[in-house]
Amino acid sequence: MPETQDQQKFVYDFTEGNKDLKDLLGGKGANLAEMTNLGLPVPPGFTITTEACKVYLDSGSEPVALRDEVSAHLEALEGRMGKKLGQADDPLLVSVRSGAKFSMPGMMDTVLNIGLSDESVAGLAAQAGDDRFAWDSYRRLIQMFGKTVLGVNGDLFEEAIDAAKQAKGVTVDIDLDAADLKKLVAEFKSIVSQETGRSFPQEPREQMDLAVRAVFDSWNGDRAKLYRRQERIPHDLGTAVNICSMVFGNLGPDSGTGVAFTRDPASGHQGVYGDYLQNAQGEDVVAGIRNTVPLADLEQIDKRSYDELMQIMETLETHYKDLCDIEFTIERGKLWMLQTRVGKRTAGAAFRIATQLVDQGLIDEAEALRRVNGAQLAQLMFPRFDEEAAASDAVRKIGRGIAASPGAAVGKAVFDSYTAVKWSRSGEKVILIRRETNPDDLDGMIAAEGILTSRGGKTSHAAVVARGMGKTCVCGAEDLEVDTKRRRMIVPSADGKDDLVIEEGDVVSIDGSSGKVYLGEVPVVPSPVVEYFEGRMHAGADDADELIGAVHRIMAYADRVRRLRVRANADNAEDAARARRFGAQGIGLCRTEHMFLGERREMVERLILAHGDEERDAALGELLPLQKKDFVELFEAMDGLPVTVRLLDPPLHEFLPDITELSVRVALAESRKDHNENDLRLLQAVHRLHEQNPMLGLRGVRLGLVIPGLFAMQVRAIAEAAAARRNAKGDPRAEIMIPLVGTVQELEIVREEAEQIIAEVERAHGVDLKLALGTMIELPRAALTAAQIAESADFFSFGTNDLTQTVWGFSRDDVEASFFTAYLEKGIFGVSPFETIDKDGVGSLVRAAAQAGRATRPDLKLGVCGEHGGDPESVHFFHEVGLDYVSCSPFRIPVARLESGRAAANGR
What we know:
Shape: elongated
Strand order of the largest sheet: 12-22-21-14-15-16-17-13
Distance between the termini: 32 Å
Helix content: 40-55%
Largest sheet: 8 strands, mixed
Number of strands: 31
Oligomer: single chain
């Protein structure tokens, strides 16, 4: 019986939850409860559940029971703290923070210092013995509340602060005194009143309730929805809300706030990593507005707090058995833990940390495999900058910042998100350059090749989000002066006379591994991980770094445990050889149409234009030895491994000249009375073969049935190539695949002819070729009649590209350019069905066809040869369905191997 609202519990004290309740309490709330359970210094508080958020988002109002539950928990919190929310003489202040199941840094709302008012600000000043602190806290509340809850343009507050600093002749906020801040509070309240038509709320409970609703609403904010689409986070989870008693890092030099990592999130190396900012609140660190000091400096600033923090970091990493990301505040020498979570990390760090934790005995190899993924491995295979070229005169080093997220990024400089998106959609590669980023820059960060900021550290918004997205990022390049209003960046000279100005559109290169910034395009070289897969670098070699060793260990374990075999889509011996070096266990798709291009196109033209059997046989006779040579090379490159050869699939008109171009050529020739008989015949053939929808026209098995001898020539070439390799003591394992079959009768006719030809070749060469004959399942009817088709097939290979087109009724080339972007933005697609298998539609046909085919023929071999064969999420689906292998492009083979291992490890 489902729980009703009346039965549900919507609020949990920090003492009631644990880290396994992320679905209910969100990541932040669950981890605050876990730290409380561990006895760590966590400010008291409570969490409103994601279920309450879902009710609010569905109905437009909070659950009926929520207000009373919040009141009861607030009363208990006030009793524990010995003061009331917003109490005039000694106010209890709280923070209201979002906290979804999955970390969404900066994408949803937070409000600090709830409970301050015109009345209680004096009480806070008296209790703290610090007027400046109290007024600074109050102006922060109005600023955050105004922007987050009331929708006031945040720039208005920033402009008021800048004006106050300019009037006083200072450059940093901490140089404003209590009187200055008191004036700012009055100005901020005036801004709120002018912009919203209401005064800033003075009643503490109203502040808290409005802030909670704002956090709920922020779940469906544009930036949050964009981030979820980017990270493939479900839209129906909702966010929890954490209400926590305030601790203050802005009480003076013996106070401060910081972010710490138990290991370096950029490299994975163990050590003291993080940022600290004296006399500040947490938002100052994450926003990157003030440049921080390295966490290690805290040892000199406050040795006692530093030592306690180091001990807590060790406790948390041992407890979570992973890299932990920690937010903390020091209030007058007292350390408080505000948050912990399993930290985001770069791809290289993920592999290093996973193997380090195995060596420390904290996790086993299966868990290490689960901790990495194919997207991270693909990122490690991207090229990097050529160090020699970077040091040459061809490019100029203009600065250096903090290496926040590794990679090599080159693009045109842009200074706002709008331009980044606009230029990117026009095909330009761009580098987004900002003083610091904020959540409103997310769409520009996604569009850019890399991100460069002049402020902030490894824990700033830019760094955290870039690492999560796998984007190259350099932060805190303080020597570079970013002028976003004039859309340029200045590199100051030593004498101040020859400053270098980088305008919007100038090409810059940023190195997220070293933090170096260059003017101009730095050439790239293959990554060490690609060199390892190519066999040019060995894990045990002297020049192999820790990363290569980590990749080698995890890949070796993935290969040991995976059930799915991994093949390559390869059409020539060169691609086949590379695929084999990358770990391919055969070829799952050889597209023979790629063998008919170049000089051979004329032979295909002669085949199409042939009058009668004699001309057609002559044209096929020309193609036969060339096809045989292609297959001999392919079988040699893949000796001892299966090679699935797909017979000709595309419409024949694709081998003919463009109809417009040919028509113009013929018309011009006729105007000159220069008749070209061949061009005239070609034009007639183009018109004859022209189709309104070629994808569903004369192609695949239909070609083999309509054009006599075409498939027979290809089958003979395959068989003779296999016989030649067998006689050369090779071990060819050819499989012949008939494309676009929709009914078993088509397959039966082609199979009967193929078996006769194979038998002829076997008798002529005295060999037993054991050639398998199967089909591609790429039409809905084929999937629905798989039980019948399996009677005449030795194997099925799912052509998920065309199956996706025919199931959805999409022409891929048309729809991706026309309306896919709108579908993704509207949430109709979480991801393109051509990128990740549509499990509910296309996937259900794959599953049904696999089951029906195996019911008819238990030994039926099943594979997939569409692009989905190299997509990480799709590989897990194919493992679950029970396919025997996936096939993908050579470069994606390591990803498919890794994900096949992860799929097996997840099932253990």
